Amino acid sequence: MLIIEYVPQAFPEKYGPQLTKPNELRCAWSDLVWAGLTVGRRNLRHVIRPDTYAYFEIVYRSTILYTHLQAADYRPGLWGPLDTRIIQSDAYRDTDAGEKAAISSFLGLVTAKLFVEKLLDVSWLLHADTYGRRLPAIKGRIPDLIGFDKQSGTWLVVEAKGRSRGLRRQTMRRLKARSQPLIAGRKPELQVGFAGYFTAQSKILKAYLEDPPAKTDSRSLNLDLTLKSFLTDYYALLFDLLKADYGPPSFLEEYGGRTFRLKAIDEADLHIGLDEQIYQRLGGDDFSLERFIASRIRAPRIEATEQITVGGDGIYVALGERWSPTRMHRPPPDRGG
User: Fold this and answer.
1) pLDDT digit string, tens, across residues 100-113
2) I need a labelling partner for 225 at 20 to 30 A (CA). Which of 3, 86, 89, 275 fits?
């Protein structure tokens, strides 16, 4: 498995030792790809046909991760490969400053989503830019990510940064709370400042996260979101992909006692899909928010393997041989054989 060292700051004791002292997060490549494919951003579905957009967006996001990340090493162990760290690939290090900034920003969002899922059990986390025209365009006030906790029924917001050459104090100060927004008239239960960064010398991926002091004042925005629209937007990319004629047809497969509707993305050497119950509910006319939330709470969790992840959101990601631990420690051009 992969290891990401992290330092949490100022989280209440109720979150336990995983968020009150430095620790390590264990994950698989499939976890990172799941986070990258679901973190969301402003949709181009009104510009490009939904089926082709969805397909190539999946290829694009997964390719960023495959090309620019690498395992530090590969060491066979008695029960499988020994744990290793994530480093920058040569392709990442060779990009110019503008490209590097865009890649590190995306990786900041991806690692933020991964940590929120693993440490807070919040799977529904979506980039606020997804809502584009529906949110007030006031610079510096809208958080990067908005999430919903299905267990507690509360909202949270995340300010996420990505850095390619260490973590500076200036970046940490920027993660402090800005005026806290209201979501559907309610204060978020939690606000997280997060930075995913590579160390300056060894280029190892690490993370810093903080529960900053909240500040709510008369200028605080009220983000007028409904849970139904949030969930619809969350699944839109994958739902478009699975119902589209573009690419190979979708198919059903049993895994971990559940049925998933899957589609092969050959260019990225992966399969992606969705719990069939969720797919049918999203496409039906009798969508009941209460029944949907209840079914997600009851759904059995499936532990990730080296190659397969099923998120708490019911999204399934299975990686092919190109993503295997025996290859991912090599530079990207050398992973083909």
Assistant:
1) 999 999 999 999 99
2) 275
